[in-house]
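Suppose a classmate hands you a notebook page containing two proteins, each written out with its sequence and a corresponding row of structure tokens. How would you begin to make sense of it? This section walks through that situation. The first entry is reproduced here exactly as it would appear on such a page.
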Amino acid sequence: WTAREGLTAMAGCSLVVEDRALGFVSVFDDRPLTHDSLAALRSVADRVAQAVHRKNAEAALRASEERYRRLAEATSQVVWTKRPDGTLEEGAATWAEITGQSEAEARGQGWLEAVHPNDRARTRRLWQRAVETRSEYRNEYRVRRADGDYDWWQARGVPVLEPDGTIREWVGSSTNVTGRKLADQALAQALQQEREAARRLRTLDEMKNTFLAAVSH
């Protein structure tokens, strides 16, 4: 809109993006507003609206990422991000604290050096497949602690995609599942012992039946 009061000319324009009003901009001038100046105002308003929209989107994205990070930190021991090529970017400090590696040693693909030698090739293969196919990564492997012993860890990561489908980054978490693994192993051992006891009992029954049959004969 435009208006003129005394010797002051005024013009205003809404800031609209995707049919959503983001604000309003107005100008005042002591000179008459021409068609060209109004067109310029409209152009400036469009650029301002796009800038405001972009800033709002960036702020919403940062807030969303922060919520995700806090949730992940509340449920996991290690939260990490990786570059599109799969090399470790953020989370190296926590990983280094657990494994005794330096942050520099843990970055890139260096974190694999703390994975148990028997699990390392499989871990590298599963991670490379996830990167190549841009799909979810899941794995369990043993990690060497700073004191030299090993713990079992469960890792999960997902790619964050750009609108064109390319990978912007990877986000994921790693959780220490040693307690569950030990419980599973103890249960498996107990079941094995139970099966062995049942087998011995069947053998004794067979021997008893054989003996009774011989006596009866």
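The notebook's second entry, a different protein, reads as follows.
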Amino acid sequence: LQGNRQVDLSRCEIVTGFKFQVPEAKTIQYFRKVQNRGSMAIAVLNLAVFMGIKDKHIAQVRIAMGAVAPTAVRIKSIEERLTGLPIYEADNPQIYNEIHKDIAPISDFRATRNYRLRVAQSITRQAVVQMLG
């Protein structure tokens, strides 16, 4: 994806598949979609988290969000702060304060920019804590 409704395919190309690595046994995955009401298909924001735990520490983490930028984005500022952290420290609200560095939400008919920023920070922390709980 290059932007909203923009892909890097020529007129004659189609996507026929994709590959991904199967996660190791000691990993946790999480997905959440925030929407205004159940009948609305389009998200205000969505979140996907992948985490690997080793010796009561966060060994690896990948966080991605949608509807907070022209395309889905990785939340690398928080990934970096969580990687290597003891799991009992992941509840610290300070870890999630810099999420604005990785997202660029807009205000539209679904939600305001400020609402998306607050929700992004809040649900990311909730997801990590729930995954480790």
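A careful reader of the second entry would note: Strands lie at 27-34, 45-54, 57-66, 73-74.
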